[in-house]
Amino acid sequence: MSRRTSAVRLSRRVASHSMLSAALLALAACGVTLDMSGVETSIRDGIGQQKGLVMESVTCPHESRAAKAGDIFQCTGSPTIGGTVEVEVTQKDDKGTIEWKVTRSTGLFDLGEAEAAVARGIHDQLGADVKVSCGDRWQLGKAGDTFECRGEDADGTASTVVIFVKDAEGNISWALK
């Protein structure tokens, strides 16, 4: 293995955002409330569409929640491959318009982020532009795990990149093999 390594922090944040309209409202005796089942479905479908991550389920608090601008709550998602994602939901107005974003994943790596981080590291250290491919988009992982990716430069020369998972917060290091 090459002695050139780099420590990289991969964001556990999956940059997914979605705005949902007033269709997620339900009328109640006390006023307008959010349709939490609709919120869960929209998040589940949105993560699948935006990130290619198939969700087994998304769970949000099911107590009655009035439509109120600025209200923030948390939901939890379970991808079919394992791990979890935490989703922050913000009500944008009192009409039921919400915005959500995945703020953290646990036990799950977005290999697209790993590929980009390693390619930047190789460019910074060696001055070479390399396309890095790790296979599937998502990988389960915990501290101590390793997985291999393929690097290929502009001339078609291939190399193996070994990624080392340092911790559950998304810190990795890598080495050329």
Key words describing this protein structure:
five-stranded antiparallel sheet; disordered N terminus; 177 residues; elongated; single chain; alpha+beta
Task: Write up this protein.
The chain has helices at residues 36-51, 111-126, and strands at 5-9, 17-20, 25-28, 31-34, 55-59, 72-79, 84-91, 98-106, 108-110, 130-133, 138-140, 146-153, 158-165, 171-176. The chain has 177 residues and is α+β, with helices and mostly antiparallel strands. A five-stranded antiparallel β-sheet has the order 1-14-13-12-10, covered by helices on one side. A five-stranded antiparallel β-sheet has the order 2-8-7-6-5, with helices on one face. The model is unreliable at 1-17 and 25-29 (pLDDT under 50). The relative contact order is 0.20. The chain has two helices and 14 strands; from the N terminus they run E-E-E-E-H-E-E-E-E-E-H-E-E-E-E-E. The chain starts with a strand and ends with a strand. The chain is elongated.
List unreliable stretches of 5+ residues: 1-17, 25-29
Helix content: 10-25%
**Major sheet: order of its strands?**
1-14-13-12-10
Number of helices: 2
Structural class: alpha+beta
Q: What is the mean predicted local confidence, pLDDT?
A: 82
Shape: elongated
Distance between the termini: 4 Å
Number of strands: 14
What does the largest sheet look like?
5 strands, antiparallel
Q: In percent, how much strand structure appears in the residues? A: 35-45%
Q: Compute the gyration radius: what is it?
A: 20 Å
Element string (H = helix, E = strand): EEEEHEEEEEHEEEEE
